[in-house]
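Appendix B, Record 12. Input sequence as logged:
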Amino acid sequence: MPLGKRESRRPKARRGESESDNEDAHSETSHATVDSMGSMHSLEPPPSITRGGSSRSVRSFVDEQHAEETAEESLHKAFEDLAEKRSSLRESALHQIIRSLSTKFMPEAVEKSAGPWIESLKRCLRREGSEPLLANRALALLWISGGSQPEHFDDLVKLLGEGLLDGEAEVKASELLSSWEDVLEAADQHDPEVVRNTLEAYGLIYAMPSARPGHDDYNRVLDMHLELLNADDLDVRIAAGENIAIIVEDRAHHAEEARPRPSDEPENTKPFYESRHQLIQQLTFLSHDSTRHRAKKERAVQKSAFRDILQTVESNVAPMEKIKIKHETVECDSWSKIRQLNAFRDIVGEGLSVHFRENPLLQHVFHLSFDGPAPGKITSTERRLYQTIVGKARTKALKQMRGTRAAVKSSGEG
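Logged structural output:
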Protein backbone atom coordinates (compact mmCIF):
# COMPACT_ATOMS: atom_id res chain seq x y z
CA MET A 1 0.00 0.00 0.00
CA PRO A 2 1.57 3.34 -1.03
CA LEU A 3 2.71 5.55 1.82
CA GLY A 4 0.16 8.16 2.83
CA LYS A 5 -2.86 6.33 1.31
CA ARG A 6 -5.47 4.36 3.17
CA GLU A 7 -7.64 1.51 2.00
CA SER A 8 -11.38 1.98 2.21
CA ARG A 9 -12.88 0.58 5.41
CA ARG A 10 -16.16 -0.16 3.59
CA PRO A 11 -16.59 -3.92 2.85
CA LYS A 12 -16.52 -4.78 -0.85
CA ALA A 13 -19.21 -6.87 -2.58
CA ARG A 14 -18.35 -10.56 -2.63
CA ARG A 15 -18.29 -12.43 -5.94
CA GLY A 16 -21.83 -13.53 -6.84
CA GLU A 17 -23.40 -11.01 -4.44
CA SER A 18 -25.24 -7.94 -5.66
CA GLU A 19 -24.15 -4.46 -4.65
CA SER A 20 -27.55 -3.93 -3.02
CA ASP A 21 -27.11 -7.03 -0.84
CA ASN A 22 -23.80 -5.75 0.35
CA GLU A 23 -25.34 -2.35 0.98
CA ASP A 24 -27.90 -3.95 3.32
CA ALA A 25 -25.15 -5.73 5.22
CA HIS A 26 -23.21 -2.48 5.49
CA SER A 27 -26.33 -0.70 6.75
CA GLU A 28 -26.76 -3.28 9.50
CA THR A 29 -23.13 -2.86 10.46
CA SER A 30 -23.47 0.90 10.46
CA HIS A 31 -26.45 0.79 12.84
CA ALA A 32 -24.57 -1.57 15.12
CA THR A 33 -21.59 0.74 15.00
CA VAL A 34 -23.72 3.70 16.03
CA ASP A 35 -25.07 1.73 18.96
CA SER A 36 -21.64 0.55 20.05
CA MET A 37 -20.19 4.02 19.71
CA GLY A 38 -22.91 5.38 21.93
CA SER A 39 -20.78 4.72 24.97
CA MET A 40 -18.22 7.17 23.62
CA HIS A 41 -20.70 9.97 23.05
CA SER A 42 -22.20 9.39 26.48
CA LEU A 43 -18.88 10.12 28.11
CA GLU A 44 -18.93 13.33 30.03
CA PRO A 45 -15.81 15.42 30.36
CA PRO A 46 -14.34 15.96 33.81
CA PRO A 47 -16.21 18.55 35.90
CA SER A 48 -13.35 21.02 35.57
CA ILE A 49 -13.80 21.08 31.79
CA THR A 50 -17.26 22.56 32.20
CA ARG A 51 -16.18 24.76 35.07
CA GLY A 52 -18.51 27.74 35.20
CA GLY A 53 -21.24 25.90 33.25
CA SER A 54 -20.01 27.13 29.91
CA SER A 55 -20.64 24.94 26.85
CA ARG A 56 -17.95 26.95 25.06
CA SER A 57 -15.34 25.25 27.25
CA VAL A 58 -16.48 21.82 26.02
CA ARG A 59 -16.42 22.91 22.37
CA SER A 60 -13.01 24.46 22.90
CA PHE A 61 -11.77 21.25 24.49
CA VAL A 62 -13.04 19.11 21.60
CA ASP A 63 -11.41 21.44 19.07
CA GLU A 64 -8.19 21.35 21.04
CA GLN A 65 -8.27 17.56 21.23
CA HIS A 66 -8.81 17.30 17.47
CA ALA A 67 -5.92 19.69 16.83
CA GLU A 68 -3.62 17.61 19.06
CA GLU A 69 -4.59 14.37 17.31
CA THR A 70 -3.91 16.01 13.94
CA ALA A 71 -0.53 17.28 15.17
CA GLU A 72 0.45 13.79 16.39
CA GLU A 73 -0.56 12.25 13.06
CA SER A 74 1.53 14.84 11.19
CA LEU A 75 4.48 14.14 13.49
CA HIS A 76 4.31 10.36 12.96
CA LYS A 77 3.97 10.85 9.19
CA ALA A 78 7.00 13.16 9.13
CA PHE A 79 9.18 10.61 10.93
CA GLU A 80 8.04 7.96 8.45
CA ASP A 81 9.12 10.26 5.61
CA LEU A 82 12.68 10.33 6.97
CA ALA A 83 13.08 6.93 5.30
CA GLU A 84 12.47 8.43 1.85
CA LYS A 85 15.31 8.29 -0.69
CA ARG A 86 14.92 11.86 -1.96
CA SER A 87 16.77 14.37 0.20
CA SER A 88 14.17 17.09 -0.49
CA LEU A 89 11.44 14.89 1.04
CA ARG A 90 13.59 14.16 4.10
CA GLU A 91 14.33 17.87 4.58
CA SER A 92 10.61 18.70 4.31
CA ALA A 93 9.93 16.02 6.91
CA LEU A 94 12.55 17.51 9.26
CA HIS A 95 10.95 20.93 8.90
CA GLN A 96 7.57 19.40 9.76
CA ILE A 97 9.04 17.63 12.81
CA ILE A 98 10.52 20.90 14.05
CA ARG A 99 7.25 22.74 13.45
CA SER A 100 5.16 20.07 15.23
CA LEU A 101 7.42 19.76 18.29
CA SER A 102 7.80 23.55 18.55
CA THR A 103 4.14 24.51 18.48
CA LYS A 104 2.69 21.57 20.42
CA PHE A 105 3.81 19.88 23.63
CA MET A 106 3.28 16.16 23.00
CA PRO A 107 5.09 14.21 25.74
CA GLU A 108 3.04 11.00 25.36
CA ALA A 109 3.80 10.68 21.66
CA VAL A 110 7.49 11.39 22.24
CA GLU A 111 7.82 8.98 25.17
CA LYS A 112 6.22 6.14 23.18
CA SER A 113 8.37 6.60 20.07
CA ALA A 114 11.54 8.33 21.27
CA GLY A 115 13.77 5.30 20.64
CA PRO A 116 13.01 4.75 16.92
CA TRP A 117 12.72 8.49 16.30
CA ILE A 118 16.22 9.11 17.70
CA GLU A 119 17.54 6.34 15.43
CA SER A 120 15.93 8.04 12.40
CA LEU A 121 17.48 11.40 13.32
CA LYS A 122 20.88 9.79 13.88
CA ARG A 123 20.86 8.64 10.25
CA CYS A 124 20.11 12.22 9.17
CA LEU A 125 23.12 13.46 11.14
CA ARG A 126 25.40 11.35 8.96
CA ARG A 127 24.12 12.84 5.69
CA GLU A 128 25.32 15.91 3.83
CA GLY A 129 23.69 19.26 3.20
CA SER A 130 21.26 20.89 5.63
CA GLU A 131 19.93 17.62 7.10
CA PRO A 132 22.45 17.44 10.00
CA LEU A 133 21.58 21.00 11.14
CA LEU A 134 17.84 20.32 10.99
CA ALA A 135 18.28 16.94 12.70
CA ASN A 136 20.27 18.58 15.52
CA ARG A 137 17.41 20.98 16.24
CA ALA A 138 14.88 18.15 15.98
CA LEU A 139 16.90 16.12 18.52
CA ALA A 140 16.95 19.09 20.89
CA LEU A 141 13.17 19.50 20.55
CA LEU A 142 12.69 15.78 21.07
CA TRP A 143 14.62 15.96 24.33
CA ILE A 144 12.76 19.08 25.49
CA SER A 145 9.39 17.49 24.62
CA GLY A 146 9.79 14.38 26.76
CA GLY A 147 12.74 12.41 25.49
CA SER A 148 14.74 13.33 28.59
CA GLN A 149 14.21 9.98 30.31
CA PRO A 150 17.54 8.47 31.38
CA GLU A 151 17.65 5.85 28.64
CA HIS A 152 17.02 8.38 25.87
CA PHE A 153 19.25 11.01 27.44
CA ASP A 154 22.13 8.51 27.56
CA ASP A 155 21.63 7.81 23.86
CA LEU A 156 21.78 11.50 23.01
CA VAL A 157 24.91 12.08 25.12
CA LYS A 158 26.58 9.09 23.50
CA LEU A 159 25.63 10.44 20.08
CA LEU A 160 27.13 13.80 20.97
CA GLY A 161 30.27 12.07 22.18
CA GLU A 162 30.62 10.22 18.89
CA GLY A 163 30.53 13.53 17.06
CA LEU A 164 32.95 15.41 19.29
CA LEU A 165 35.24 12.80 20.76
CA ASP A 166 34.89 9.84 18.36
CA GLY A 167 33.27 7.88 21.20
CA GLU A 168 36.63 7.43 22.93
CA ALA A 169 35.75 9.21 26.16
CA GLU A 170 32.85 10.24 28.32
CA VAL A 171 31.43 13.59 27.30
CA LYS A 172 32.13 16.14 30.04
CA ALA A 173 31.36 19.84 30.13
CA SER A 174 35.06 20.76 30.39
CA GLU A 175 35.82 18.65 27.32
CA LEU A 176 33.08 20.39 25.37
CA LEU A 177 34.56 23.77 26.26
CA SER A 178 38.02 22.61 25.27
CA SER A 179 36.81 21.41 21.86
CA TRP A 180 34.98 24.70 21.26
CA GLU A 181 38.04 26.72 22.25
CA ASP A 182 39.89 25.12 19.35
CA VAL A 183 37.26 26.61 17.04
CA LEU A 184 37.35 30.04 18.69
CA GLU A 185 41.14 30.28 18.61
CA ALA A 186 41.01 29.73 14.84
CA ALA A 187 37.87 31.84 14.30
CA ASP A 188 39.20 33.47 11.13
CA GLN A 189 39.22 30.04 9.47
CA HIS A 190 35.52 29.38 10.13
CA ASP A 191 32.24 30.81 8.90
CA PRO A 192 30.92 33.63 11.18
CA GLU A 193 27.74 31.67 11.89
CA VAL A 194 29.79 28.69 13.10
CA VAL A 195 31.81 30.99 15.37
CA ARG A 196 28.65 32.66 16.75
CA ASN A 197 26.97 29.30 17.46
CA THR A 198 30.15 28.07 19.15
CA LEU A 199 30.32 31.18 21.33
CA GLU A 200 26.67 30.81 22.38
CA ALA A 201 27.15 27.14 23.23
CA TYR A 202 30.33 27.99 25.15
CA GLY A 203 28.52 30.56 27.29
CA LEU A 204 25.61 28.20 27.92
CA ILE A 205 27.87 25.46 29.31
CA TYR A 206 30.44 27.71 31.02
CA ALA A 207 28.49 28.41 34.21
CA MET A 208 28.18 24.70 35.03
CA PRO A 209 30.32 23.78 38.09
CA SER A 210 31.98 20.89 36.23
CA ALA A 211 32.98 23.20 33.37
CA ARG A 212 34.41 26.14 35.30
CA PRO A 213 38.11 26.66 34.56
CA GLY A 214 40.74 27.09 37.21
CA HIS A 215 42.14 30.44 38.26
CA ASP A 216 45.05 30.24 35.82
CA ASP A 217 42.74 29.75 32.83
CA TYR A 218 40.64 32.88 33.35
CA ASN A 219 43.19 35.12 31.63
CA ARG A 220 43.54 32.79 28.65
CA VAL A 221 39.76 32.42 28.18
CA LEU A 222 39.12 36.17 28.49
CA ASP A 223 42.02 36.99 26.15
CA MET A 224 40.46 34.69 23.55
CA HIS A 225 37.11 36.49 23.84
CA LEU A 226 38.73 39.94 23.91
CA GLU A 227 40.29 39.17 20.52
CA LEU A 228 36.87 38.27 19.10
CA LEU A 229 35.49 41.71 20.03
CA ASN A 230 37.34 42.92 16.91
CA ALA A 231 35.50 40.51 14.57
CA ASP A 232 33.83 41.94 11.47
CA ASP A 233 30.53 40.18 12.17
CA LEU A 234 28.20 41.96 14.63
CA ASP A 235 26.68 38.75 16.01
CA VAL A 236 30.15 37.37 16.75
CA ARG A 237 31.15 40.56 18.58
CA ILE A 238 27.97 40.55 20.69
CA ALA A 239 28.22 36.81 21.50
CA ALA A 240 31.85 37.26 22.57
CA GLY A 241 30.88 40.25 24.73
CA GLU A 242 28.04 38.35 26.40
CA ASN A 243 30.41 35.48 27.17
CA ILE A 244 32.79 37.94 28.81
CA ALA A 245 29.89 39.15 30.96
CA ILE A 246 29.00 35.53 31.87
CA ILE A 247 32.62 34.79 32.85
CA VAL A 248 33.00 37.98 34.93
CA GLU A 249 29.60 37.45 36.59
CA ASP A 250 30.44 33.83 37.41
CA ARG A 251 33.81 34.82 38.85
CA ALA A 252 32.25 37.52 41.05
CA HIS A 253 29.50 35.17 42.24
CA HIS A 254 31.91 32.49 43.37
CA ALA A 255 34.28 35.01 44.92
CA GLU A 256 31.43 36.07 47.23
CA GLU A 257 30.82 32.45 48.22
CA ALA A 258 34.49 31.83 48.99
CA ARG A 259 35.71 31.54 52.56
CA PRO A 260 36.21 34.96 54.16
CA ARG A 261 39.83 36.09 54.31
CA PRO A 262 41.35 36.14 57.82
CA SER A 263 41.78 39.67 59.13
CA ASP A 264 45.52 39.24 59.50
CA GLU A 265 46.02 38.07 55.90
CA PRO A 266 47.22 40.82 53.56
CA GLU A 267 44.71 41.82 50.91
CA ASN A 268 45.48 40.72 47.36
CA THR A 269 44.79 43.72 45.13
CA LYS A 270 45.78 42.00 41.90
CA PRO A 271 42.76 41.85 39.55
CA PHE A 272 41.65 38.38 38.50
CA TYR A 273 41.99 39.49 34.85
CA GLU A 274 45.33 41.08 34.05
CA SER A 275 44.05 42.90 30.91
CA ARG A 276 40.97 44.33 32.62
CA HIS A 277 41.86 47.93 31.71
CA GLN A 278 42.24 47.03 28.04
CA LEU A 279 38.94 45.12 28.16
CA ILE A 280 37.05 48.08 29.62
CA GLN A 281 38.53 50.37 26.97
CA GLN A 282 37.37 48.08 24.17
CA LEU A 283 33.88 47.65 25.67
CA THR A 284 33.57 51.42 26.12
CA PHE A 285 34.51 51.98 22.48
CA LEU A 286 31.93 49.44 21.26
CA SER A 287 29.21 50.95 23.46
CA HIS A 288 29.81 54.39 21.86
CA ASP A 289 30.92 53.31 18.38
CA SER A 290 29.79 55.80 15.72
CA THR A 291 31.94 54.49 12.89
CA ARG A 292 30.26 55.48 9.65
CA HIS A 293 31.11 52.35 7.72
CA ARG A 294 28.65 50.47 9.95
CA ALA A 295 24.93 50.65 9.21
CA LYS A 296 22.84 52.81 11.55
CA LYS A 297 20.77 49.85 12.78
CA GLU A 298 23.92 47.80 13.41
CA ARG A 299 25.43 50.62 15.48
CA ALA A 300 22.23 50.94 17.55
CA VAL A 301 22.11 47.19 18.30
CA GLN A 302 25.80 47.11 19.19
CA LYS A 303 25.61 50.12 21.51
CA SER A 304 22.63 48.73 23.40
CA ALA A 305 24.27 45.32 23.87
CA PHE A 306 27.67 46.58 24.98
CA ARG A 307 26.28 49.17 27.42
CA ASP A 308 24.84 46.26 29.46
CA ILE A 309 28.05 44.23 29.11
CA LEU A 310 30.22 47.18 30.20
CA GLN A 311 28.03 47.77 33.26
CA THR A 312 28.54 44.14 34.33
CA VAL A 313 32.33 44.26 33.90
CA GLU A 314 32.68 47.61 35.70
CA SER A 315 30.02 47.31 38.41
CA ASN A 316 28.89 43.66 38.42
CA VAL A 317 25.32 44.71 37.52
CA ALA A 318 23.41 42.38 35.20
CA PRO A 319 20.42 43.37 33.06
CA MET A 320 16.92 42.10 33.83
CA GLU A 321 14.83 40.44 31.14
CA LYS A 322 11.16 39.67 31.74
CA ILE A 323 8.63 37.67 29.74
CA LYS A 324 4.95 37.60 30.69
CA ILE A 325 3.41 34.15 30.16
CA LYS A 326 -0.20 33.72 31.23
CA HIS A 327 -0.34 34.74 34.93
CA GLU A 328 3.38 34.09 35.48
CA THR A 329 6.43 36.24 34.73
CA VAL A 330 9.72 34.73 33.60
CA GLU A 331 12.51 36.82 35.17
CA CYS A 332 16.11 36.42 34.06
CA ASP A 333 18.35 38.52 36.29
CA SER A 334 21.75 37.12 35.29
CA TRP A 335 23.66 36.64 32.06
CA SER A 336 23.67 32.86 32.44
CA LYS A 337 19.85 32.81 32.81
CA ILE A 338 19.48 35.10 29.79
CA ARG A 339 21.68 32.75 27.77
CA GLN A 340 19.51 29.80 28.87
CA LEU A 341 16.37 31.68 27.83
CA ASN A 342 17.87 32.54 24.43
CA ALA A 343 18.90 28.90 23.92
CA PHE A 344 15.32 27.71 24.46
CA ARG A 345 14.12 30.59 22.29
CA ASP A 346 16.36 29.48 19.40
CA ILE A 347 15.32 25.83 19.68
CA VAL A 348 11.59 26.16 20.36
CA GLY A 349 10.96 29.33 18.37
CA GLU A 350 7.36 30.50 18.10
CA GLY A 351 6.10 27.81 20.48
CA LEU A 352 8.03 29.13 23.49
CA SER A 353 4.90 30.31 25.32
CA VAL A 354 3.25 26.89 24.78
CA HIS A 355 6.21 25.09 26.35
CA PHE A 356 6.39 27.57 29.22
CA ARG A 357 2.72 26.87 30.03
CA GLU A 358 2.77 23.07 29.62
CA ASN A 359 6.34 21.76 29.69
CA PRO A 360 7.61 20.79 33.19
CA LEU A 361 11.23 20.96 32.00
CA LEU A 362 11.09 24.68 31.21
CA GLN A 363 9.05 25.34 34.34
CA HIS A 364 11.73 23.60 36.42
CA VAL A 365 14.62 25.47 34.77
CA PHE A 366 12.98 28.88 35.24
CA HIS A 367 11.20 28.09 38.56
CA LEU A 368 7.68 28.58 37.24
CA SER A 369 4.31 27.24 38.37
CA PHE A 370 1.14 27.44 36.33
CA ASP A 371 -1.27 26.11 38.96
CA GLY A 372 -4.82 27.38 39.34
CA PRO A 373 -6.18 27.81 35.78
CA ALA A 374 -8.78 30.47 35.14
CA PRO A 375 -12.47 29.46 35.22
CA GLY A 376 -13.53 27.65 32.05
CA LYS A 377 -9.97 26.49 31.32
CA ILE A 378 -8.45 23.05 31.69
CA THR A 379 -4.97 21.97 32.60
CA SER A 380 -2.78 19.81 30.40
CA THR A 381 -3.09 16.99 32.97
CA GLU A 382 -6.90 17.09 32.76
CA ARG A 383 -6.70 17.16 28.99
CA ARG A 384 -4.47 14.08 28.87
CA LEU A 385 -6.75 12.26 31.35
CA TYR A 386 -9.81 12.90 29.21
CA GLN A 387 -7.92 11.88 26.05
CA THR A 388 -7.05 8.57 27.74
CA ILE A 389 -10.71 7.97 28.63
CA VAL A 390 -11.84 8.80 25.08
CA GLY A 391 -9.08 6.64 23.58
CA LYS A 392 -10.10 3.59 25.63
CA ALA A 393 -13.75 4.10 24.70
CA ARG A 394 -12.82 4.40 21.04
CA THR A 395 -10.79 1.18 21.18
CA LYS A 396 -13.68 -0.68 22.86
CA ALA A 397 -16.16 0.62 20.30
CA LEU A 398 -13.94 -0.38 17.36
CA LYS A 399 -13.59 -3.92 18.78
CA GLN A 400 -17.38 -4.19 19.06
CA MET A 401 -17.73 -2.87 15.53
CA ARG A 402 -15.31 -5.46 14.14
CA GLY A 403 -17.14 -8.21 16.04
CA THR A 404 -20.48 -7.10 14.56
CA ARG A 405 -19.03 -7.04 11.05
CA ALA A 406 -17.63 -10.54 11.49
CA ALA A 407 -21.06 -11.77 12.71
CA VAL A 408 -22.83 -10.17 9.75
CA LYS A 409 -20.31 -11.68 7.35
CA SER A 410 -20.60 -15.20 8.80
CA SER A 411 -24.43 -15.09 8.76
CA GLY A 412 -24.37 -13.99 5.13
CA GLU A 413 -22.10 -16.85 4.17
CA GLY A 414 -24.35 -19.30 6.03
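The longest strand covers residues 321-325.
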